[in-house]
């Protein structure tokens, strides 16, 4: 990805994505290809310094790829749109037919390309909490890496760093900015449409489950559309789609909250934790107004719970 000059900074997607082993397994199963991403450089460890504690080395299986590399590996350019008049529309970008985007915090990430220090472990990603934000260092091989600074500029956060700063030899210019706080539309479905994709629902990268969720979301959307096309209860199916995504966001907020409560004690950390807690309460309240899930996924298809029992 070309680096932007100081006057060319734009808000854009993350320059790279870490695909965890569970996400890889889900993609391989979904596409029926056991060879997907085989032979790519591996991340085998996660080295974490959080909440003022000493660095901990944890096992972590993943590969690193850019968005264009993922599209090429999945051969997405070979997909053809269906012919004829669509009976449903899937909206993956604004403007959406209904709803407002709810943001559970505000924390921009700034991405820069870096050269790694010779002693840096190129099969490990590094995560570190500082007083005013956190750093995520993702090696790409051959001494190169991407550094994400969340909550502040990377050079400022590096000045507060005990772990990540020691792995970086030189810092490049800012290449991208993007929002990392969880967010979702408060209306994800209508009578003849569904909303999906990261413009409609997105997770915080701190948990590393965003890609797997995106695949599960796509499977659910496809299953809902097939069931509607086959004469299923449209209202119940659309309600199921909405409630499952709210439940997924609720789980994500619940998992993310301890990281922000323990990361630091500054006003920035407290504000982010408060926003996540409020988001969790909003999801809980929404789910309390919805019926219990009436369907289960069996492979790529939805079946009624009573039929699956």
Summarize this entry quickly:
This protein is α+β, with helices and mostly antiparallel strands and 309 residues long. The protein has helices spanning 21-31, 67-73, 154-159, 210-229, 234-263, 267-288, 305-308; strands at 17-20, 42-49, 56-65, 89-91, 101-103, 108-116, 124-130, 133-141, 144-150, 168-179, 183-185, 189-190, 193-195, 201-202, 295-298, 301-304. The termini are far apart.
The proportion of strand residues reads: 25-35%
Tell me the radius of gyration.
20 Å
Strand tally is: 16
Distance between the termini: 50 Å
Annotation field: number of helices: 7
- Describe the sheet with the most strands: 8 strands, mixed
Backbone shape: globular
The mean pLDDT is 91
Low-confidence stretches: 1-11
Order of SSEs, N→C? EHEEHEEEEEEHEEEEEHHHEEH
What order do the strands of the largest sheet run in, or round the barrel if closed? 1-3-2-7-8-9-6-10
Helix vs. strand class: alpha+beta
What is the helical fraction, as a range of percent? Answer: 25-40%
Task: Map the helices and strands.
Layout: E1 17-20, H1 21-31, E2 42-49, E3 56-65, H2 67-73, E4 89-91, E5 101-103, E6 108-116, E7 124-130, E8 133-141, E9 144-150, H3 154-159, E10 168-179, E11 183-185, E12 189-190, E13 193-195, E14 201-202, H4 210-229, H5 234-263, H6 267-288, E15 295-298, E16 301-304, H7 305-308
Parallel strand pairs: 2-7, 4-13
Antiparallel strand pairs: 1-3, 2-3, 5-11, 6-9, 6-10, 7-8, 8-9, 11-14, 12-13, 15-16
Helix pairs in contact: 1-4, 4-5, 5-6
């Amino acid at each position: 990805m070309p680096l932007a000059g100081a006057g060319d900074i734009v808000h854009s997607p993350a320059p790279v994505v870490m695909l965890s082993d569970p996400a890889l397994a889900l993609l391989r199963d979904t596409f029926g290809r056991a060879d997907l991403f085989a032979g790519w450089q591996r991340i085998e460890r996660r080295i974490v310094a959080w909440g003022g504690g000493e660095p901990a080395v944890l096992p972590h299986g993943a590969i690193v790829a850019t968005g264009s590399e993922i599209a090429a590996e999945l051969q997405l350019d070979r997909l053809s749109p269906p012919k004829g008049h669509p009976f449903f529309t899937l909206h993956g970008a604004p403007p959406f037919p209904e709803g407002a985007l709810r943001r559970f915090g505000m924390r921009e990430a700034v991405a820069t390309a870096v050269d790694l220090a010779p002693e840096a472990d190129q099969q490990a990603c590094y995560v570190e909490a500082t007083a005013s934000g956190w750093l995520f260092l993702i090696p790409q091989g051959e001494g190169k890496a991407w550094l994400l600074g969340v909550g502040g500029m990377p050079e400022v956060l590096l000045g507060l760093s005990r772990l990540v700063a020691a792995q970086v030899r030189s810092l490049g210019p800012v290449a991208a900015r993007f929002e990392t706080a969880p967010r979702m539309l408060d209306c994800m479905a209508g009578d003849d449409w569904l909303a999906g994709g990261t413009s409609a629902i997105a997770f915080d990268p701190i948990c590393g489950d965003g890609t797997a969720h995106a695949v599960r979301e796509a499977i659910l959307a496809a299953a809902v559309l097939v069931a509607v096309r086959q004469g299923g209860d449209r209202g119940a199916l659309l309600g199921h789609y909405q409630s499952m995504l709210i439940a997924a966001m609720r789980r994500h907020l619940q998992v993310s909250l301890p990281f922000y409560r323990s990361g630091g004690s500054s006003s920035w950390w407290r504000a982010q934790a408060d926003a996540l807690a409020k988001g969790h309460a909003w999801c809980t309240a929404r789910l309390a107004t919805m019926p219990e899930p009436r369907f289960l996924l069996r492979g790529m298809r939805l079946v009624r719970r009573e039929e699956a029992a």
